[in-house]
Amino acid sequence: MGQVVSDAVVQEQAAGNGGIIKNGREILLQAFNWESHKHNWWSNLEGRVADIAKSGFTSVWLPPPTQSLSPEGYLPQNLYSLDSCYGSLQQLNSLIQNMNDHNIRAMADVVINHRVGTTKGSTGMYNRYDGIPISWDEHAVTSCSGGKGNKSTGDNFDGVPNIDHTQPFVRKDIIEWLIWLRETIGFQDFRFDFTKGAVMLQSL
After folding, report:
1. Per-residue DSSP letters for 98-162?
2. Is the Cβ–Cβ distance between 86 and 36 less than 8 Å?
3. Strand partners, 97
4. pLDDT band at 43 (very low <50, low <70, confident <90, very high)
5. Cα separation, 88 vs 104, whole angstroms
6. Structure letter (DSSP) for residue 70
7. 114: which residues sit within 8 A by CB, 6+ positions away?
8. d(Cα 110, Cα 200) in Å, to the nearest integer?
9. Residues pairing with 117 in the sheet
10. Does residue 81 come out as left (phi exceeding 0), alpha (psi in the -120 to 50 range) or beta?
């Protein structure tokens, strides 16, 4: 279950360039499947960008770009590491630049409901994030998934620490990371994974 988010400024700019978003003329391509990580995906996809543009697609939904304990990208750990099973940061940068050159918007699949820790906390769960950027402790994890944060206000994603988005420091860090993905990496849109759990979307 996901949600696509584009800000008002981007919508106005798109409207001025033919109304791609505002007037509903966007055509979104989901450019991956559950096996894509096995096929050097960023480089593989870059070779198809021209054909994607010729086919009329205006936006491409890409898989989660962050380092993850699952090869598909849905068990993120170091959010600022974009070397993943889909390819390197350099390959991702090249792909997004090629998409920009062909007027295709890059959409990142963003997983912020849960995050796998690097070290064990007091309960024996991996719910601390020592040694990596956004180095939260157990207070960033909901109490119902083994942390010291508040009780979850949404559904739980079982088996991994669920992030407590009621914490101001969590919201601050996630928003800064999303801005980095847009302004530094070049993603223009986001699709949020498991939105029925991540209540932070209410404050974006």
Report:
1. HHHHTT-EEEEEE--SB---SB--TTSSS-B-TTSSS---GGGB-GGGTSSSPPPSS---TTSPB
2. yes
3. none
4. very high
5. 21
6. S
7. 75, 76, 145, 157, 160, 161, 162, 163, 194, 197
8. 12
9. none
10. beta
CA dihedral sign, ordered 133, 139, 142, 147:
positive
Task: Tell me if residue 189 falls in helix, strand or coil.
Answer: strand
Q: Which CATH superfamily is domain 1-15+23-192 in?
A: Glycosidases (3.20.20.80)
For the stretch 140-147, contacts whose Cβ atoms lie closer than 8 Å and that sit 24 or more positions apart, written own/partner, are 140/164, 140/167, 140/169, 140/170, 141/117, 145/114, 146/121, 147/121
Distance of alpha carbon 16 from alpha carbon 1, whole angstroms:
31
Domain residue extents for the chain: 1-15+23-192
Mean pLDDT of the chain: 89
Q: What is the pLDDT of residue 21?
A: 56
Instruction: With a cut of 90, say whether residue 64 has pLDDT above it.
Output: yes
> Can you say how many angstroms the Cα of residue 184 is from the centroid of all Cα atoms in its chain?
14
